[in-house]
Amino acid sequence: MNTGTLIGPEELATLLVEADPLVIDCRKALDAPQSGRVAYAAAHIPGALYADLDTDLSDLSKSGLGRHPLPDESAFSAVLSAWGWHPQRVVVCYDDAGGALAAARLWWMLRLVGARSVRVLDGGYQAWCEAGQATTSVAPTSGFGEVSVRFDASQLVGFEALQAGLSEASLRLLDARGAPRYRGEVEPLDRVAGHVPGALNRPFADNLDAGGRFKPPAQLAAEFAPLIAPYPPAAVVHMCGSGVTACHNLLAMEHAGMPGSRLFAPSWSGWLADPARPVETGAGPEAQNAAAS
């Protein structure tokens, strides 16, 4: 397994005893803003701190950049400092949605600032509990550091670069939303249904098996390969509704041994901020490349 992506409950339990990992609880239901904090207060992995998608991993005051805009570097630096993070410290992120909500987002944001010792708990909080591991309702005292981080711009794709890349056919855009939203049949969150013209659909849920664990790397690679062909992983750009679940596809590709893909962080909600940007509905380019052959 790629040790830069996932960790199992047993390995995390050992890590808690033998090292000093920074464990971050990222649980949150998007339709219930306080649900994650309530769940964390009730029970969490011992030693875990809580990260709120809306306040720690996003800056909702920004306009035109989607529903979960990235925070400024200074704001994220302050969050990491309050957690006691430093570049050499191992980080483990978890949620209760197989990593698809904020755990993969935090994993990616840490990679964005140069961290490499960061992993997502495979199967999330449920897997931890099912493995019989201990939980607690006691919140630990957070450490404190003083770090100043910078985002690696090469891992991000903006509006102009995305439009140019699609026009020149120099990149492959993958949309992580569910198929009905991608096709424009339903849209529960954004003002217009559909997708960015040229995007292909890879629902993030397809990365998980029936038990909520990530599929094996070889299986994921076999599923992504026909979708991105003939492009290399470094030419792949991910998006979703607001730049959160897209990180799950990025994580899945990394786990599959296909590193180097990037994120269009504003995603669909940011794309729609300008009414002049085109919208496409239906199955998408060449019926999803003939159903990925």
TrEMBL record:
PROSITE patterns, alphabetized: RHODANESE_3
Domain Rhodanese: 17-137, 167-280
UniProt keyword Transmembrane, yes or no: no
Any Pfam family hit: Rhodanese
InterPro entries per the UniProt record, alphabetical: Rhodanese-like_dom, Rhodanese-like_dom_sf, TST/MPST-like
Molecular function GO terms recorded: thiosulfate-cyanide sulfurtransferase activity
Gene3D superfamilies according to UniProt: Rhodanese-like domain
Signal peptide: none
Keywords: Pyruvate, Repeat, Transferase
Keyword Transferase found: yes
Matching PANTHER family: SULFURTRANSFERASE, THIOSULFATE SULFERTANSFERASE
Protein name: Thiosulfate/3-mercaptopyruvate sulfurtransferase
Species, as recorded: Dokdonella immobilis
